[in-house]
Structures are given as structure tokens and as C-alpha cells.
Amino acid sequence: xxxxxxxxxxxxxxxxxxxxxxxxxxxxxxxxxxxxxxxxxxxxxxxxxxxxxxxxxxxxxxxxxxxxxxxxxxxxxxxxxxxxxxxxxxxxxxxxxxxxxxxxxxxxxxxxxxxxxxxxxxxxxxxxxxxxxxxxxxxxxxxxxxxxxxxxxxxxxxxxxxxxxxxxxxxxxxxxxxxxxxxxxxxxxxxxxxxxxxxxxxxxxxxxxxxxxxxxxxxxxxxxxxxxxxxxxxxxxxxxxxxxxxxxxxxxxxxxxxxxxxxxxxxxxxxxxxxxxxxxxxxxxxxxxxxxxxxxxxxxxxxxxxx
Length: 307
What we know:
Layout: E1 3-9, H1 16-24, E2 32-37, H2 44-54, E3 59-63, H3 69-80, E4 85-89, E5 94-95, H4 99-109, E6 115-123, H5 138-144, H6 151-157, E7 167-170, H7 174-177, H8 187-197, E8 201-212, H9 228-235, H10 244-262, H11 271-294, H12 296-305
Parallel strand pairs: 1-2, 1-4, 2-3, 6-8
Antiparallel strand pairs: 4-7, 5-8, 6-7
Helix pairs in contact: 6-8, 10-11, 11-12
């Protein structure tokens, strides 16, 4: 089985050595590291060239002639990979030494799974651990409290909890995910939506890498400011006994998700979008019906302001 890593870089000189070293130092060696650089103006290309010289045939550098930005750059990097399993990587994190080994074990034990994401330790610029709740903790909390869930319901109806830097996928799903929908979806969100819709997504609760938080990040937003109880209320769609604030958030979020689908080009011809839209509409109707039955005054208020 051939293992690829798709890495996207852009002015990543600060932490690039740690990231690449942790990939090349895995207990199960990877076969290729495909790096797509998006027009770096710092020392990123020089650093990558040193790795390419040291690991010929393994480290492969592709420099974009125009700035693609993160989503389309990852689309390119994935397309250039030749492995059976493709890991996605940012330029500023640190992988645990057994990350590849542990992911491969899950793939081997669950042959129908096509995409795996995992939890991660959050670290600061100096590498110190940040002790905060993250959205990646939600499935572990659900299991601890015996709360039923499906990955597709959570990702489609609440929000994405699968971060690309913590993700690996099988070659078999590439035709289903590429090209990524333009403008509306991050690459990791789309991969998680497609695979969970197909029931081929899996989340590892253990932390398999160190995810770095710093002032030059392109994408973040993984911390949850509230308590674990509030986080479970927000993500547990089957809990109808929630605050006005969370109920309002649910309704507005569903509206936003529906509009995002409807404004995506050629959405009607994609069965994934059809499944997503059907699930959103059914849950939206459930929320409205339950509110109408249990609190008619609040229902009228929501109908006036938010429905």
C-alpha cells in the first residue's frame, strides 16, 4: 500500500521544518510528500528544496504559477498524489510519530471507511499545550454521555468538526470529492460531508498530532468558548430542551446551510447536495413543529423574526 501526504505551503518558513520532519520521521514511512506551494515569498521554497535534495523521489515540489488559495491548492495537491492512502497536512503542525501507523490500522480494521479524521493537541507558537475545549472533543463527549449521533447529522446540520490537517482519505473517494465546490465550502468540510453522507467517514477520538495556533493562520476557529455541557447542547440535535439562544442559532444556521446549497452552481445534479438538502429540510420542519407544539408564543416570535 502506497502512502502519500498532500502538503500545501504559503510563506510557512517559521514552522515548516518541524512539520516536514514529523512527516518524514513516522514509524511507518510515507512513500511520497507532494507539496504545492502557493507563491511563497519567504524562505519556504529554499527549505523545501533542501528536503527534496535530501529525499529525492519522496519529496516532490510543485510551485503554482498563480495563487490558488487553500481550497484549490489542496485540490491540486490531492490530484497529484499517487498513493492508495492520502494524508492531508498543513505547514505548521507536528505529527505524532505513530500517526500514519494508527490511521492505517483503522483503515485496515474498517475496510468500508474512506475518510478518517482525528482529534489533536492544540499548541501555541512556542509549542506549549493550550488547554481549551475544541470542537474535535464532541464525539468523545457524546460517547461518554451515551448520546446517539451520526457523523452526517452533526456535520451537515450543525457544523464541520473534521479539520484537514488531521485527515486522511482513500484514493477511492477522490472522484466523489473533486472538484471541490467553488467559494462555499472548505476542502475538509466538503470531504467530511461527502464521506459521512456515504457513511464512509470515521473520527478517531485520540489526539494524533499537535495543531498549532498562531497569528498567521489562514483558517482556525476550532476552540469552543462555552462549557462541555453547552457544547453538547449545541451539537446534540436530538435535544429539544435548549436555550432560546441555541434554538435561534439552530434555525439561522439551517437557513444559512440551505442557502449555501441553493447558491452552489449545479447543486441539483449532485446527489450529495440532494441528500444534504433533504436532511436540512426535514430537521428544520422538526424544529418548527416541536416549537409550535411546546411553546406557541415563542413559535410565533421565531416565525416573525427568523423563519
